[in-house]
Each structure stands twice: as C-alpha cells, then as structure tokens.
Design goal:
heterodimer; A: 247 residues; mainly alpha; two-stranded antiparallel ribbon; 2 strands; 65% helix; elongated; B: 108 residues; 5 helices; flat
C-alpha cells in the first residue's frame, strides 16, 4: 500500500510518488467508468423525454384512460399487474416492490464494504450473499414484468387500421405509439443487463472473499470497487423509476 | 483454503454508530420512495407533480452518491472531477426538451 504523503503543498501532491486524490488507481478508474456510464444512461433517458414530448399526450382524466396508439400512455395504467393476482388493478405496486429490493441490496452492499474495512471476512461473505440474492430477485421480477408487457392484456387495443393488437413488440404495441415499447425494452433492458453483470461481478468478489484472497492481500478494496458499481446500478434505477414509471 | 492463515487476521470490532448511519440513509431512501408513491395517486398530474418527482429523485440520488458511494467524504478534487462533468447532462436535457417540443409543433 502506498504511504500517505507528508508533503501537503499543491506542487508536492501532484509531482508524483503518491495518490493525489487519495484514492487508488482502480477506484479512480471505476469512478470515471461510472461517469461515462452515467452519460450513456442520461442519453437514453433524455431521448425518452424527447420522444415523449414529440408525441401527443393523453389529456383526459386518469379514471377514463384507455389505451390508444394515437397518444402516449399514462405509465401507471400500463404497469399495474401483479404476479399470481390476475385481473387485479394494482398500479405501480410491483415496480415499487422492485425498487425496494434494489435499495435493500444496495444497503447490504454498504454493509459488506463496511465489514471489509474491518477485515471481517465473515461479515463480507454474509452481506455479499444477501446483495447477490437481492440482485437475482430483482432480475426475476424484471423477467416477469417483461413477459407480462410482451403478452399484454386480454382485451388488447384496436389500432388505426382497425386490427386488434395484444401486448408489445418492437414494431407495434397495444399501450401506445410503437416507440413507447421500444424505449421500454431498450432502457429497462440496458439497466437489467447492468444488474446482471453486477450480480456476476459480485459473485466473483463473494467467491474470492470466501476462499480468503483478500485476507492474503491484506485489504478488501475490491469489495469497495464492486460496491461502487452496484450503487450506480441502484442510482440508475432511481432515475428509471421516476422518469419511466411515475411521470 | 487454509484456516490457519486467516486466523492471524485482526478483525476490528463493529462500530455501531457507522452501521446505524447506514440504516438511517436506507430509511431516508425508503421514506422518499413512499412519499413519491402517495403523491402519484393523490396529486393532479401536471407540471407541479413532475417537478416534485424530479426534486425527490435528486434527493435520493444525492444520498446514494454522497453516502453509499462515499463521494461526500472523498477528497474535493475527486468529488468535483465526478460532479463537474454532470453539467453536460444538464445541457443535453435543455437542448433535447426544446427539440422534442419543436418536433411536436412541426408534426401537428
């Protein structure tokens, strides 16, 4: 481990031989990678905003809302189904549960990092395992959500050409303009892939902790780095939740 | 896997204050999400509600980045080199929202 610099003048700090930002190379690069990833997700979400504004909005009351390919749907009317409770109108409940699962798995990740700082291998193993479980449950929920979105409701929607459409694909969907479903697949899919890769990374870290790699190395900084990535995935979901499901 | 080797590691005891703070931030995130939920069903849809949602989202984002990702407690140089470039995203939001509005006007 690099020794902490004793010279605190600006010149001394940047002239080499120490870590000027007081963070290791790996941690710093993780931060800059996350910054670039933030740009990717912002671009996707802002594009959602652009396309939504370019389409006519539904201007009636929420109670009388009906699906039409002519205007952008109200999200709480689209995402209102729950597993095992077919036909029950429960707007945003399922996605709310998913949000809580991801926030909780972020909390268990912080606890794993905290245990790592104390060189507590058992603590790291326990909390990493909970984090991995949280991530897998979230992915399962998302798979159900996608499947429901693709299959659609029993009634379907009649489009401008007079045909009834059920569910959604990349060219047409029963909920609104075709781009609504495309953006749903793209944005939640891109986020879901991040969650998936996060689970894989977390599993590798978990495995290394179990076999004692970090005890031998003398520090648990890898837990901190994968933790940064995992929190970022949670952060993105916070934005997806607001911009895609609430507004 | 050799247990002899890991037995030499000194485990520092848990600092209850730190763990308490983590759960406190978690509670804040949960409460803000619940508030968003209540607003989604009680308030009229419109500009006001959208602004409230965006404001609450920024609050949540702040707690995740500052506390969970620990950015608030890092060195200032590191903090600003991450937070500074976000200004480009603000620019993109303004630019593309205006653009979306223009496309809507041309189409209708």
């Amino acid at each position: 481990m690099a020794t902490t610099a004793t010279i605190e003048t600006a010149e001394g700090r940047w002239s080499g031989g120490n870590a000027p930002m007081n963070a290791s190379y790996g941690k710093l690069m993780m931060w800059f990678f996350l910054l670039s990833d933030a740009f990717s997700f912002s671009a996707l979400l802002i594009t959602y905003g652009l396309i939504r504004y370019a389409h006519p909005a539904y201007d009636g009351s929420v109670a009388n809302f009906e699906f039409s390919t002519e205007y952008w749907p109200i999200p709480e009317m689209v995402f209102e189904a729950l597993p095992f409770l077919h036909g029950v109108h429960a707007p945003l409940i399922f996605v709310g549960i998913m949000t809580f699962i991801l926030i909780l798995s972020s909390v268990t990740m912080v606890l794993a990092v905290e245990a790592g700082h104390r060189m507590d291998r058992k603590g790291v193993v326990k909390w990493m395992l909970w984090t991995i479980i949280g991530g897998l449950v979230f992915l399962g929920c998302q798979a159900w959500e996608w499947s429901h979105f693709i299959h659609g409701t029993a009634e379907g929607t009649v489009n401008a050409a007079g045909e009834t459409i059920f569910g959604a694909n990349l060219t047409q969907n029963q909920y609104g303009p075709p781009l609504f479903a495309s953006l749903f697949f793209f944005i939640t899919g891109f986020h879901g892939f991040h969650v998936f890769s996060g689970v894989v990374i977390n599993f590798i870290i978990f495995f290394n902790a179990v076999v004692g790699t970090y005890d031998k190395r003398g520090h648990y900084e890898m837990v901190e780095k994968s933790g940064l990535y995992w929190h970022f995935v949670d952060l993105v979901w916070v934005f997806v939740f607001t911009l895609f499901y609430l507004i | 896997m050799s247990t002899e080797e890991t037995n030499n590691i000194q485990v520092i005891p848990e600092d209850k204050e730190k763990t308490k703070k983590i759960w406190k931030v978690a509670a804040i995130l949960a409460v803000v999400t619940i508030i968003e939920f209540i607003f989604a069903f009680t308030l009229e849809r419109g500009i006001l509600l959208v602004s409230i949602f965006l404001g609450l989202t920024i609050v949540k984002a702040f707690y995740i980045v500052a506390e969970f990702m620990h950015l608030k407690h890092e060195q200032k140089t590191l903090m600003w080199s991450i937070v500074g470039p976000i200004i480009l995203i603000v620019w993109l939001i303004i630019a593309l929202m205006l653009e979306g509005n223009a496309i809507f006007n041309i189409r209708n």
